[in-house]
Amino acid sequence: FAELAESFKQLLVDAAPDAEQQKDLDYLLTLGELFTLIPYAQLILEQARFVSLPADTLDQLFDVLVRDFSADAVELHGKASATPAQADWARAAIARPVVDGERFDSVFAKVRGLAGQYEMRP
Q: Going by C-beta distance under 8 Å and a sequence separation of 6 or more, which residues neighbour residue 107?
Protein backbone atom coordinates (compact mmCIF):
# COMPACT_ATOMS: atom_id res chain seq x y z
CA PHE A 1 0.00 0.00 0.00
CA ALA A 2 2.90 2.35 0.70
CA GLU A 3 3.99 1.96 -2.92
CA LEU A 4 0.48 2.85 -4.10
CA ALA A 5 0.47 5.94 -1.88
CA GLU A 6 3.82 7.04 -3.27
CA SER A 7 2.59 6.49 -6.81
CA PHE A 8 -0.46 8.65 -6.08
CA LYS A 9 1.79 11.45 -4.90
CA GLN A 10 3.77 11.13 -8.12
CA LEU A 11 0.53 11.25 -10.13
CA LEU A 12 -0.27 14.61 -8.57
CA VAL A 13 3.22 15.87 -9.42
CA ASP A 14 3.40 14.51 -12.97
CA ALA A 15 -0.24 14.63 -14.12
CA ALA A 16 -2.17 16.88 -11.77
CA PRO A 17 -5.79 17.66 -12.63
CA ASP A 18 -6.05 20.51 -15.14
CA ALA A 19 -8.44 23.46 -14.82
CA GLU A 20 -11.31 21.59 -16.51
CA GLN A 21 -10.84 18.50 -14.35
CA GLN A 22 -10.87 20.68 -11.25
CA LYS A 23 -14.44 21.65 -12.19
CA ASP A 24 -15.50 18.05 -12.87
CA LEU A 25 -17.03 16.87 -9.59
CA ASP A 26 -17.30 13.27 -10.77
CA TYR A 27 -13.59 13.17 -11.57
CA LEU A 28 -12.66 14.94 -8.32
CA LEU A 29 -14.77 12.55 -6.26
CA THR A 30 -12.81 9.59 -7.59
CA LEU A 31 -9.50 11.37 -7.04
CA GLY A 32 -10.67 12.21 -3.51
CA GLU A 33 -11.53 8.58 -2.83
CA LEU A 34 -7.99 7.60 -3.77
CA PHE A 35 -6.51 10.32 -1.60
CA THR A 36 -8.70 9.53 1.40
CA LEU A 37 -7.46 5.96 1.60
CA ILE A 38 -3.94 7.21 2.31
CA PRO A 39 -4.63 9.11 5.56
CA TYR A 40 -7.00 6.31 6.62
CA ALA A 41 -4.13 3.86 6.23
CA GLN A 42 -1.85 6.14 8.25
CA LEU A 43 -4.43 6.41 11.04
CA ILE A 44 -4.90 2.65 11.08
CA LEU A 45 -1.15 2.14 11.44
CA GLU A 46 -0.89 4.68 14.23
CA GLN A 47 -3.81 3.19 16.16
CA ALA A 48 -2.62 -0.38 15.61
CA ARG A 49 0.46 0.38 17.68
CA PHE A 50 -1.58 1.71 20.59
CA VAL A 51 -4.02 -1.17 20.74
CA SER A 52 -1.52 -3.92 19.91
CA LEU A 53 -3.55 -4.96 16.89
CA PRO A 54 -2.58 -8.47 15.82
CA ALA A 55 -0.50 -8.60 12.64
CA ASP A 56 -3.01 -10.81 10.83
CA THR A 57 -5.79 -8.30 11.48
CA LEU A 58 -3.63 -5.41 10.31
CA ASP A 59 -2.63 -7.32 7.18
CA GLN A 60 -6.29 -8.10 6.45
CA LEU A 61 -7.20 -4.42 6.83
CA PHE A 62 -4.54 -3.51 4.29
CA ASP A 63 -5.83 -6.25 2.00
CA VAL A 64 -9.09 -4.29 1.91
CA LEU A 65 -7.31 -0.95 1.43
CA VAL A 66 -5.35 -2.30 -1.55
CA ARG A 67 -8.56 -3.65 -3.09
CA ASP A 68 -10.35 -0.33 -2.57
CA PHE A 69 -7.44 1.66 -3.99
CA SER A 70 -7.36 -0.59 -7.05
CA ALA A 71 -11.12 -0.27 -7.57
CA ASP A 72 -10.83 3.53 -7.42
CA ALA A 73 -7.92 3.42 -9.87
CA VAL A 74 -10.11 1.44 -12.29
CA GLU A 75 -12.82 4.05 -11.86
CA LEU A 76 -10.36 6.88 -12.53
CA HIS A 77 -9.15 5.06 -15.64
CA GLY A 78 -12.69 5.00 -16.96
CA LYS A 79 -13.34 8.72 -16.52
CA ALA A 80 -13.85 10.45 -19.85
CA SER A 81 -11.91 13.45 -18.59
CA ALA A 82 -8.84 11.45 -17.52
CA THR A 83 -5.77 12.35 -19.53
CA PRO A 84 -3.65 9.62 -21.14
CA ALA A 85 -1.00 10.08 -18.41
CA GLN A 86 -3.63 9.74 -15.69
CA ALA A 87 -5.11 6.66 -17.38
CA ASP A 88 -1.64 5.11 -17.61
CA TRP A 89 -1.10 5.77 -13.91
CA ALA A 90 -4.48 4.27 -13.08
CA ARG A 91 -3.67 1.06 -14.98
CA ALA A 92 -0.35 0.80 -13.17
CA ALA A 93 -2.03 1.40 -9.78
CA ILE A 94 -4.22 -1.68 -10.05
CA ALA A 95 -2.74 -4.07 -7.54
CA ARG A 96 -3.68 -7.39 -6.08
CA PRO A 97 -3.28 -7.69 -2.32
CA VAL A 98 -1.39 -10.55 -0.76
CA VAL A 99 -4.10 -13.17 -0.54
CA ASP A 100 -3.96 -15.45 2.50
CA GLY A 101 -6.95 -17.68 3.11
CA GLU A 102 -5.75 -18.75 6.55
CA ARG A 103 -5.33 -15.12 7.61
CA PHE A 104 -8.81 -14.27 6.34
CA ASP A 105 -10.34 -17.23 8.18
CA SER A 106 -8.50 -16.31 11.40
CA VAL A 107 -9.67 -12.68 11.30
CA PHE A 108 -13.19 -13.70 10.33
CA ALA A 109 -13.35 -16.07 13.30
CA LYS A 110 -12.23 -13.27 15.64
CA VAL A 111 -14.84 -10.90 14.28
CA ARG A 112 -17.57 -13.55 14.31
CA GLY A 113 -16.72 -14.21 17.95
CA LEU A 114 -17.65 -10.61 18.74
CA ALA A 115 -21.19 -11.02 17.42
CA GLY A 116 -23.71 -10.08 20.09
CA GLN A 117 -21.05 -8.66 22.43
CA TYR A 118 -21.96 -4.99 22.01
CA GLU A 119 -24.89 -3.57 23.93
CA MET A 120 -26.17 -0.06 23.47
CA ARG A 121 -26.83 2.06 26.50
CA PRO A 122 -30.53 2.53 27.19
A: 56, 57, 60
